[in-house]
Amino acid sequence: MSSALKSRVTLDDLAVLATRYRIDPSKPFHLSDYDPSDDAGLGLTKQEGKALLKHAKRRLSDLQELLYANSEASMLIVLQGMDTAGKDGTIKHVMSGVNPAGVSVTSFKQPGPQELLHGFLWRIHISAPSSGRIVIFNRSQYEDVLVTRVHPELLEREHLPGEVGTPAFWQGRFDDIRHFEHYLSRQGTVILKFFLNISKDEQRTRLLSRLDIKDKRWKFSSSDIKERQFWDQYHYAYEEAVTHTSRDYAPWFVIPANHKWFARLAVIETIIGALENLKQKPPVMEAGLMQSLDAYKDELSKEPD
């Protein structure tokens, strides 16, 4: 970190990001209470934010290496947000410094015919992280209480018994998600769920950018415009999902995402905070193995240059 940044921002200042945007399950949750342009009062510039992110990547890399080496815990990162919220960019910029051997990304698109023959959590469970690994869900189990809630006609494909789309039906899905996440937590998985919170005006700006810049037009989909018409319905669905599934063992974080660089910094600091809470230490080797390694070192050292 540069001396200029050291004089303005400390690691203690950044540590507030690990908890600032965490949802308290005991309090009512309304997205309208959260400012998509919030900067935690740090007053950082974009250039400063990028420099801090670079420093944070090195810290994350060290912590991820310990997680992989110990293989006693795992981490599941869920990324959700409206179209153009920055999920792909967050994954690219936050996780670019970690060892790819210990990290994977699963992007959940619309379920195919085989997946629709199973319960909605089937494809989610088989993608959950094994010990020592970090898995990122780009969209997740929450699509089944978001997209299908805004477009309940999609439920007709799911081979479901009984009446669907009722309040009891949605409550059942929330219960299933909570129970699933509680199960993962009891198996040693640290769960972090992020909603990247952008404003409707910012989404419009980003969609126009994709159309204005020819090299970005491949990112544009006509469905983005269609889904934008359901903005309020999606916000209600998110409020319901967060309210019913935010728990201490699987917390939600509503991250201000109008400024991409700040969203990435807030996400990485939250991940770092959770990994630091594991209080990991380098694996301790057995005495016999250490002696063998010392012997190998001595043998290699005696070889002529």
Automatic annotation (TrEMBL):
Keyword Transferase recorded: yes
GO molecular function: polyphosphate kinase activity
Keywords tagged on the record: Kinase, Transferase
Example of a GO biological process term: polyphosphate metabolic process
Ranges in a coiled coil: none
All copies of domain Polyphosphate kinase-2-related, residue ranges: 45-280
InterPro entries: P-loop_NTPase, Polyphosphate_phosphotransfera, PPK2-rel_1, PPK2-related
Superkingdom as given in the UniProt entry: Bacteria
Record-annotated membrane-spanning stretches: none
Family stated for the protein in its record: Belongs to the polyphosphate kinase 2 (PPK2) family. Class I subfamily.
Protein name as catalogued: Polyphosphate--nucleotide phosphotransferase
Lineage per the UniProt record: Bacteria, Pseudomonadati, Pseudomonadota, Alphaproteobacteria, Acetobacterales
